[in-house]
């Protein structure tokens, strides 16, 4: 079995949210990457900032179609990659992408809940050198738990990288209103408390936080670095 195939054993995510995401992406997954590249800004900057060590391990929570993993795997050819998503529909597309890109031997995918996952059971690894979450916290109920779960799965000297919608604080009010209305159609809600939660969680585990506001507040980009 190639590593991009879904593991036989995996934690079943909560049915309600899993079913919702499968419903949202059953058809969208076929053109998701073509449309999202125009407004999911900052993803490539996150990938370039991962700075994965040779032979390192990288986990994406909410990996979706696998677009980010493919790009990261090209940039860091000596690393191994793992992707977790709650949607079986998205994972089907991601698995096909790994096969198409010749990455099956370096990437493992699994279905699970990003707020409560057992990495050892899913992937055979308890910790990872890098974990990243790209435009997923704004879609996850109880997203704060995802931050805690990610930090718990970091290796010593590891780092958590997050990119997501900001509060558009320096953009016109009309733009913010239109964007929020559009995102709501896809069950997306920019997290106003994101910075506060990242600061609190960083302090809890004794880590450092670097937080950046991009594109006049359209995008928030953060890195939590574990102190050793």
Automatic annotation (TrEMBL):
Please list the GO terms describing molecular function.
methyltransferase activity
Q: Determine if rRNA processing is one of this entry's keywords.
A: no
Q: What is this protein called?
A: SAM-dependent methyltransferase
Q: Which domain of life is it from?
A: Bacteria
Which of UniProt's keywords are assigned here?
Methyltransferase, Transferase
> Do the record's keywords include Methyltransferase?
yes
| Methyltransferase domain sequence ranges | 58-158
Taxonomy-wise, where does this protein's organism fall, top ranks first?
A: Bacteria, Pseudomonadati, Pseudomonadota, Alphaproteobacteria, Hyphomicrobiales
């Amino acid at each position: 079995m190639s590593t991009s195939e879904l593991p036989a054993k995996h934690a079943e995510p909560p049915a309600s949210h899993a079913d919702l995401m499968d419903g949202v992406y059953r058809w969208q997954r076929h053109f998701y990457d073509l449309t999202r590249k125009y407004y999911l800004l900052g993803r490539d900057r996150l990938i370039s900032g991962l700075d994965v060590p040779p032979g390192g391990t990288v986990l994406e929570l909410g990996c979706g179609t696998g677009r980010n993993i493919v790009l990261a795997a090209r940039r860091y050819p000596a690393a191994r990659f793992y992707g977790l998503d709650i949607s079986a529909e998205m994972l089907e597309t991601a698995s096909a992408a790994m096969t198409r890109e010749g990455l099956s031997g370096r990437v493992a995918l699994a279905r699970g809940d990003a707020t409560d996952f057992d990495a050892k059971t899913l992937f055979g690894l308890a910790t990872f050198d890098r974990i990243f979450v790209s435009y997923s916290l704004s879609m996850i109920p109880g997203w704060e738990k995802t931050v805690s779960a990610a930090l718990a799965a970091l290796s010593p000297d590891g780092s958590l990288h997050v990119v997501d919608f900001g509060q558009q604080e320096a953009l016109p009010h009309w733009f913010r209103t239109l964007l929020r209305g559009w995102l709501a159609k896809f069950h997306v809600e920019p997290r106003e408390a994101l910075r506060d939660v990242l600061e609190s969680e960083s302090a809890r585990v004794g880590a450092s936080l670097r937080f950046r506001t991009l594109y006049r507040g359209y995008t928030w980009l953060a890195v939590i670095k574990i102190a050793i």
